[in-house]
Structure formats: C-alpha cells, structure tokens
Specification:
alpha+beta, 6-stranded antiparallel sheet, 8 helices, 15 strands, binds pyridoxal-5'-phosphate
C-alpha cells in the first residue's frame, strides 16, 4: 500500500489522504485512471500511459487537472517518496467534487487528482510467470466504450472474483460471437500451433494496452508473424500458447483456459522469449 499519496496538490500520509464523499469518482465512477510499471526505480512507458490518460479524459470531457509536465513530476515524486524500486504508480482523475447529479457539474468544478505508488514482489511475479496462470471465461457484459480506462470496473471486479472462486487467476471476456475480447485486467493473446502471434484489434471493444502496443514491436523484432484479428474461444483452446499482457505483469503465460491445458500445460517458448525481451523495447523515464 502507498505510504504517501498525492491528493489534489499535497503529499499526505496514507491515513490523511482522503477524498470528499461528494467526489464524482466515489458517487458515480465518473473518472479515469492509469497504472504504470516501476522497474529499477524507472517509470516504464510513462509518455504512452500519460497519452492514453489524456485520451480517456478527452473522450469523457474531463479537464486535465494539471499540465502534462507537472503530472510527470508528481508521478516521479510519488514513486520517490514511497521508495518504490519495483512496483506500480497509480493515477486517478475524476470530474471533481459537486452536489450529486448525473449531468456534468458547473464548469469551474476542479477535477480531482490522486497519485499513489506501491512496491510489488518482482521475484514472486517471475515465479508466477515460470508456472503460468489459469484463466476462466465469462460472457462479455461491459459497456461499448471499454477503450476508455474508466474507474467504472464492476464487471471486471465480478469477473476477477469468479476467476478466484474457481481457483484461477484471470477471466477472459467472450462476446456473443464466441470471440475473446480481453481479460478483466489484461489483454489476451494466443500463439497458433504454427507460431503466429494473435491478438484482437484495439477498437472500442478492448482497452488498447500499453504493454500490448509495445509488445507488437517486440513480436516484429523477433521476426514472428503477427496477426491482429479476433480469435474465438475454440481457437484459444487449441492454441499452441496463450498469454496476457498488462503493465504490472508484462507477458504472463496462460497454461489453462477453463480447466483445459494450453499447449503442453506449461509456459511456451514464444511467451517466455517475449517476456524476456520486453524491457529492451520499453521506454524508461
Ligand atoms: N485491459 C484491461 C481491461 C485492463 O484493465 C488492462 C490493465 O489494467 C489492460 C487491458 C492492459 O493495459 P496495460 O498494458 O496498459 O496495462
């Protein structure tokens, strides 16, 4: 947990870091967020994450709380004050504090900005990647704009809990056509039996993961064949490999989907090689 949090202009001890009960993030999930990996003290792919934050804010017509340069300084300072070497930095922006009303608050309402940072156990993450994770599938039930990184995550919360309840680590959403969209907190990938690396196009139906974007470059640098196209759950069951991507997990091999072993039931060479190479392609700030 973050020991020090940035809240609307101040760095506060965790116990003093409070938001107003009328904050629209709390009342209406009217806000957006970003999560960047911190590795070796550096923030990974920060410009891309802040670019996506800007886009999410723009799509929801929420004003940026501070200038991009100032936000970069706040991220760095929050990481420093929490002494995070390996972990994540979290940024949340909401439409601010106003009397509860669905329509937008008065124009002069200041957006709220909270930034926290916490350490993650890098070695535990590596052990997990060496074992691989299990995935279950759930029907896609989210709204049609999941390309916006909104804090309205209730379907994702329920999907992740369903995974936990079934002894799995992640849930993949599957649409009415039987196609995998993405994970509850990750993008979904498969490697076909003839070694093509496949992930769904980033339209409004998935979040355009920053890890996904960077990894496409790694796939190409490794001279693998990349196919950006929808894939069905049936195809995933028969895949040579599967994996998920997210800032906090990089490339995480998937070894079971709905209790069916994928590939040989252990992490495959393509996922392992992509994971090993990822940070050579990512940007450090
Ligand atoms: N899709 C969803 C629904 C997510 O919540 C996340 C990350 O949390 C991702 C994809 C992966 O995005 P990124 O690689 O930018 O972390």
């Amino acid at each position: 947990m973050s020991r020090i949090a940035y809240v609307n202009g101040r760095y506060l001890l965790r116990r003093d870091a409070l938001v107003d009960i009328e904050d629209r993030g709390y009342q209406l999930a009217d806000g957006v967020y970003e999560v960047c990996e911190v590795r070796g003290g550096a923030i990974i792919d920060q410009p891309r994450h802040l670019g996506r934050l800007q886009r999410s804010l723009g799509e929801l017509r929420i004003r940026a709380p501070v200038a991009p340069g100032a936000l970069a300084i706040i991220l760095r300072e929050t990481v420093r004050r929490n002494r995070v070497r390996n972990g994540i930095v979290y940024v949340q922006v909401t439409r601010g504090v106003a009397r509860r009303d669905f329509s937008f608050p008065p124009r002069d309402t200041a957006p709220s900005l909270v930034v926290t940072a916490r350490s993650l156990d890098l070695a535990a993450n590596e052990r997990r990647a060496a074992r691989g994770i299990a995935v279950i599938t759930v029907p896609e039930c989210r709204w049609a704009r999941v390309d916006i990184k909104s804090v309205a995550l209730l379907p994702n919360v329920l999907a992740k809990q369903a995974a936990r309840d079934r002894g799995a680590d992640e849930a993949w959403f599957v649409d009415r056509e039987g196609r995998v969209t993405e994970g509850a907190s990750s993008n979904a990938w498969i490697v076909t039996p003839d070694r093509k690396v496949v992930t769904r196009p980033a339209d409004n139906g998935i979040l355009r993961g920053i890890t996904r974007t960077v990894l496409i470059g790694v796939v190409e640098a490794q001279n693998l064949v990349f196919e950006e196209r929808p894939f069905t759950l049936e195809e995933a069951y028969g895949a040579g490999e599967a994996f998920v991507t997210a800032a906090s997990q990089i490339v995480m091999p998937v070894v079971r989907i709905d209790d069916r072993p994928i590939g040989g039931g252990s992490p495959g060479p393509v996922a392992r090689a992509l994971r090993a190479d990822f940070h050579r392609h990512a940007q450090r700030t």
